[in-house]
Amino acid sequence: MIYLDSAATSFQKPPQVFRAYNETVRNAASPGRGAYRPAMLAAEAMFHAREEAAAFFHFPDSERIVLTMNATHALNLAIHSLAQKGKRVLISGFEHNSVLRPLVASGMEIVTVGRKLFDPEGLLQELRSSLNDASLAVFTHVSNVFGYILPIEEIASLCCSRGVPLIVDASQSAGILELDSRSLGADYIAMPGHKSLLGVPGSGLLLCGGDTVPLLFGGSGSDSLDRQMPAYLPDRLEAGTQNAPAAAALAAGIRYIHSRGRQEIEKHERELCRHMASLLRDRDDLELFLGPESMQTGVLSVRSRRFDCDELAARLAADGICVRSGLHCSPLAHESAGTIETGTLRMSFSPFNTHAEIERAAAKLIKFI
Fold first, then answer.
1. pLDDT digits 0-9 by tens, 34-47
2. Which of 160, 209, 211, 152 is nearest to 176 (CA)?
3. Contact, 297 vs 262, CB < 8 A?
4. Domain range enclosing 127
5. pTM listed for this prediction
């Protein structure tokens, strides 16, 4: 099997991630629910996950890092804390439904800027002219469909200069691109644990720089006499029993990235993307959505001029090539890129893919088209 769908979930993981998860499942209980050893082991897993994340993202206060179920959970927490019904919110033309649907549900007026693929300057120009009337901005760092890297540092600087709160969706960048919370100064940065941070499904992070409003209410293991959620983080946003095994796996994934080197991983995935593009770009019957290397991560979407993308994905799957087809939960991105009627076939690469796998997958795709 050749797995090329890491933008959805990192299927291939370092062995230490599995070890950390399994050891915590076997030995840990509920964090914050007792002073006995299994409960303390669970609490330690949560603590180490926050500490590893704080160091990795240069976040000043690990207690303001909330452990979530996934990026969708994290984004809902952030949007719930800042959304104001009837007020204007700015988003890019490449947002995932994890951003779009909570904003629609909030009743905010949504204004979309930057709907041209691989055009950061156009996005920034539109943003400058739209910020005066905005009360919130929510921007992805990287498009999950096209690997398009948005100019998030410049976006953050503009929002800061106009006093507009910013939520960053780092679902496709955390673990791959440099993400320094100090320089961004965003109110919230949301991310999953199971993608490029190499953790397991059921994990995510929300870096909280701003005020928070609970989305879920319940037990927190603290302040049990109080009928309100605790006033402090992380307890305020972590109702119910946390997923200590997933936290342990996430910490192990971050440590692996440290040991291998984030920049080396970024370079490797971009090289794989460019290698695949070089093998496919001369095909007249295939459209590649390829931008400048500095603007694209290790994600490549293609579209056949003759075959349905779902049909191609099914053919590849039958031969052990794992890719994703369709709209990828991001219809707004497809509207922006002009692919809403067809969707795309997306290949996304990981630290564990090889150039030999790229050549075999490209040969299979060429054979089918």
1. 899 999 999 999 99
2. 152
3. no
4. 15-260
5. 0.97
